[in-house]
Amino acid sequence: MKKHKLNTFDDRKLFNVIGILILIFLFLPIFFIIASSLTKNSDYLELLIEEQFIRTYLFNTIELILKVGIISAFIGFTMAYIVTFYEFKYRNILKLLLLLPLAIPVYVGAYTYTGIFNSWPFLEVILKNNFTMNGSVFIFSIFLYPYVYLASRSYLNKNISEYIDVARTLGKSELSIFFKIILPVARPVIFASTALVIFETLSDFAVVNYYGAQTLSYILNISWLSLGQKDTASKLAILLLFVIFVLIYSEKLFRGKKEYANDSILFCPYKRRRTTGKQSLMIYSFIFIVLLLGLFLPVVQLLKYVSMNLDYIPKLNIIKITLNTLFTIFVTASIIIIVGIILSSIIRNYKHKKRTILSSLASIGYSVPSIVLALGVYMFFINVDKAIFFPILKLFGVNKYLLTSTRIALIFGLFFKFFSIAYSYFDQTLIKTGDNIFESAKTLGNNNLFTMIKINLPILRRGVKYVFIILFIDLIKELTLTYSLRPFNYKSLSTEVYRYAGNEMIEVAAYPSLVIILLCGLVITYVEIGGKNDKIK
Amino acid sequence: MKKLLSCLIILGSILILVSCNKEEVVNVYTTRHYDADDLLYDKFTEQTGIKVNVITDKALVSINKIKEQGDAPAADIYMTANAGSLAIAKSENILQPIESTILGSNIPAKYKDEDNNWFGLTKRARVYIYDTDTYTMDEAKIQLPTYEELADSAWDGKVVARSMTNQYNQDLVSSMIEILGESAAVTWVDGLSDNFARNAEGNDRSQAKYIYDTAGVDIAIANSYYYGKLEADANNADSEYHNVANGTNIFFPNQGDDESGVHINISGAGVIKNAANKENAIQLLEFLSEEEQQTTFSSTNYEFPVNEDATISSQLQGWLDAQGITTLKEQDINLSIYGTKNSKAVEIMTTSKWDTQGE
Description:
heterodimer, A: mainly alpha, 26 helices, B: ten-stranded mixed sheet, 15 helices
């Protein structure tokens, strides 16, 4: 009887309230950013506007993200196309290796390439020029294309075979199949994954600074780090957000009502074509160049640095730092996944239009440049600390901030940033599942809680591993939020990289860099190989 | 799920327990991220039993955090590697005056705040690194320009410097505003930016490497500290800076009788207003100002001590000797102006397109 009550009492209101509270919580740092931007323009901002610098930096930023977007989409999608539709020797190992540049943080890539250019000056001529905006475009594209590769590959695998079979039957050529079928069908996933590349690009401040690219991040840096004007920084961040939304919105407009193809159709693997000799040569050369630039050269260079400074190993405490980093990652990822499951389950109950709006609210943190997000998160938590926890702890005779003096602020900072990764994955999964199963549960008189535990959870559980891996890679590489929000004496792999690289000790920074790359490489390999086993099962 | 929840609760309790632990501490916000500092903190803890907790962050970010914290700052000491930020910290009213006879006698007046809000701990000079293929030291002493002359068109395409985002470049410009006056400083920055051989990129050492590699580009503006690091890598065949120090030399500009002296910056620190561990903080600053620690700064971190009793390392002394300098002539200005002129300096550098005027 009791159990019956538990699964039927009307908890709709309660769930709505929880949903709204989570959304408000997610929005609070943004609120602080917006609040701090409501000031009269500083003299410096006025100067930037008057002398039209803002326009220049804005155009440079657009140039950067368009170039990075197009190149990484080209590399990522072409690679996905090749490994999906062609059969060639070593395909399986190359398929995995092509993911690994994602394991190299872009700032490590930038520092490392200084050494590579030193050993191979002709590469500098090819890769550092006006077109690549002094190398920045190259660095972002070569280390971020795997986002597009990964998403396109899994999409092509699942969605496209039946279209192609039909086209083949109709006698279409390979080229026309590629341009008339594959590309248009895959467009939404290319755009969505390229958007991830663009967010990462816009969030970076180390690479553009190092290569002297004159983007909005550069001027945001000056106004915040050189002048301490948080209002100017917030305004510039809002301008950046605006650019991002225009890009995303114009894509949506362009796409019109076309939605993702429904991949709940039967999975029937595409039979790959054997390559001809000429095709093989082209494929191998292309893959070789990408892997050489995105993986082999940087890793060899880092190993070279490490071998130069073997005596530094005991001084670095690398195991302690790695464990500390992993602890934060596990706690953060767990919180993100739990809240992601709850919120996506709640928002699923809303009608389509409302759901879209609520979903974009839930994803906003990812598109705010980290340097400004860190500021918003800090202002939020220090105010909560001052208003609530500091007075409470003081009663116990402790003069300390609970949130900002421990890693709690950091964990939630990372939560704000990366929540949308888990959320959008779970949200998409629930959308693809369709409404029937949830309606049935409701018709049977089950309430939201029961439905969530008995239906949503099993559906979403399979995705948890995938979401965790993506979060792991993002969290272990994350630098800006970690640097700004960490408590006293806190060292992570990324802050150690930054500390030594910033101190012009790239040889020492190579150690934590390699640990990051190794751990990311391991989880990526695990998913690739583990994923295959799942399929076999 | 339940397991995770209980884990979180346990974690929370541990955090609270840890925060209740009452050991003697001093909390430091610093921009300095050197191993040398960590070793000195360890030594301090060994001697006094006071644990040093550190967060490294950007100078102005830390100031903003301290301001947000209000009456109960999380840190006791604010430490930076440039005088401008110290002056800004004082003007933002986050530091407090400290009366200490030890600090008073260890640190000369010109390297500390007039109201004892902050104290210099080490010095660096903004120097030239020049190509020894082009100049011998004797030629350099006659032919290398003063800071002022560096903006002359004679040096067009012969100079490199890192980005204007670098605090040391901003402080150099602030000092020139003070020495030349604002309008002459604008002309100076315009001229200098025009003379840059390339658009700004890389750090100080890569400027030195650039002049070493590139014929016709003779002068890199850099921090003396980095020349120490270049020398450390000079004979390391694996380093990208291999031989750079062997083909270049360090030069302290503006040493002539009627010249304004070399541009100096300091690393320094102040005690934060309402600091919970004020006495410990003072003790740490006093410790760092003592002769022994000052000598360590010089020998392990290529910095000049501010304490006149400390020994300058033989490496740094060698630089001065090579140029025949017995007493280094420094710009005769109040270091606080790096803070008060900072916004103006950034405005001037932005307008003159410091970072993008190279050809």
